[in-house]
Amino acid sequence: MMALALREARKARGQTSPNPMVGAVVARKERVISRGYHAQAGAPHAEAAALKKAGDARGATLYVTLEPCHHQGRTPPCTQVILSAGIRRVVVGDIDPNPHVTGGGAEFLASRGVEVVTGILRRKCHELNEFFNKHITTGLPFVLLKSAATMDGKLATATGDSRWVTGEKARSYVHRLRNDVDAILVGRGTVKKDDPSLNTRLPGRRSGRDPVRLVLDTRLRLPLSARVFDQDIGGAAIVVTGPKPPAKKRRAFEKAGIEVLVLPLARGRINLSKLTKKLGARNIQSILIEGGGEVNASALLYDRIVDKIFFFYAPKIIGGVKAPTLVDGSGIEMMSKSLNVEIIKIRRLGSDILIEAKPLYS
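Structure (tokenized):
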């Protein structure tokens, strides 16, 4: 039953931010009466959606992936809806990590005579909302880093050609990642070389959600004509620059509706730690980095803001001393000081390999 509730929750992938994804199932004994999920912020919560479909749910069991809320938000407290429906037993996957509500819903229901069971498929329910969980407890966004390379670790040839490193299935997977996140980040070099639009394209499905597009441009040198700044083909765009950007250029960007965010530098580059704090304060819960080797080095080795890595490897070898690699920068001097990672998953996407990993910062 909890697995069915998880399946319901995933139907709203990429649509619920800043709320978590939640799924619910109403059942009597082994028979499913109804299912529901939280579709988007402001819409009914999963419990309310499932109970409305159920009709008469008196004496039934409610399975829900996240602890029912016990506070008034845009919608009424789910605990009151559950009590009004006459639910006898509530089975919870994960306890709400929100420090303002943790334990409140489960405790309240138990105090009103409802049998409450917690921790069913807890790890899967917790992983479902890793973006929400980090942001609600730290105020910082969850950061994904994606990069695609040949088997010898090259992002492009020595001449800069990178169309295409990986195949269609891998590229489609990246668009699903874009659909999941609140913002996508690239450096000036990527925009100059590839002129990407950075919008979300899901072939054969809905168009997807376009994340906020963030561009690192230390001296504000990119032209306004770059596709990433075209708001007709993507989400809002923000150019992140260093102190004292050229006043005339800044006015031109702002006149075109492009926000210019000024931040201090670290090692001559945008301070990514300060950037994530700024974005977290704006309720941006997740960021996908799709930069080049220099941005990857800053994010992974120096500012250490990355929570999860997605490295795609294509069955190609191109060589070249001057060909850009997955992680550039000055690098680590001693192997003993290298950044270790935990391999989470390895999968095949067409002819390409995806390695999903978690950085182990000391």
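The first strand starts at residue 23 and ends at 28. The mean pLDDT is 93.
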